[in-house]
Amino acid sequence: MFERFTKDARAVVTGAVEHAEKGGARTIDPEHLLLSLIDREDGRASSALAALADRRRLDSVREALVEARRHAGLSQSETEALAGLGIDVAEVVARVEETHGVGAMSGDRAPKGRRSGHRPLDQGTKDVLERSLRIAVARKDRHIGDEHILLALTARPGVPAEVLADHGVTYTSVTRALYGDGESKKAG
């Protein structure tokens, strides 16, 4: 499938690998793809993000991703659902971090002795990349671009889509920014 990726889409995946390595993550997660997209200053996805959110709002997206990672990858809606059951996620995180250190629940700690090397794509990232292919095919695009990765991230339930939506970046708004008002129907 990677042979169908444009140069920009490959750069997004490469950037995601770098984010995973820098954070000591065991796997490359959808959040790493989003962080890589935010970092980029060229490409169609970057243009769409710039049209929908200024740099300050994108920095807020980055901070929200970091906070979700500290909460074991729980989205805000999952945190609220647990609160409805009487579980205070912030309190649980505080207690775990008090004992084991900041970021202990992130799952990013690689086993001892493993600082670098190959990191596999987690299932969520595989799903995003597969969905980006389906979106490109549905649009009759020959190649998978970074814009298809962004659309796939907004279309797939999870932390990246929720954080983006909280900042006004949805599948519909990205589609509108990329293709205009006439083509905002959902693909994928």
UniProtKB/TrEMBL annotation:
The keyword Repeat appears for this protein: yes
Domain of life: Bacteria
Protein name (database record): Clp R domain-containing protein
InterPro entries: Clp_N_dom_sf, Clp_R_N
Keyword Flavoprotein belongs to the record: no
Domain Clp R, chain residue ranges per copy: 2-187
Xref: Pfam families: Clp_N (PF02861)
UniProt source species: Streptomyces zinciresistens K42
Signal sequence annotation: none
Coiled-coil segments on the chain, per record: none
